[in-house]
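My main concern about presentation is that the manuscript never shows what a single data entry looks like. For the editor and my fellow referees, an illustration may be useful. For illustration, here is how one protein appears when written out as sequence plus structure tokens:

***
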Amino acid sequence: MKAILPILLPIFLAGCAKTVDERADEYVDLSFALCGAKVKSYSQGEDGKIRVVCENESYFLVKDQQTLAYMNELNGAYCYGKGFAVFNERSNYYTFTCADDKSFNIPK
């Protein structure tokens, strides 16, 4: 039985993992919350960066999915859940403008 476990465990875990489409849906849903509007376009470039353009012409560019999750926290804490007009990730800080035109620079 112990010899079979190392073989079956990866197969079992792979079956439980989310598909690419399911993960993309989650990111688009999160992007929708951060836009405060419908998502016009969502893409991830070869450089790994995620680019989102919202229907209300707001946009953001982030390094990865972890940053999207942190953006959700910043949206709640600084923008009161209304979304961003602009969000940029810099090397040492995040700079963003909330939908209500309040601007912030937050160190990483």
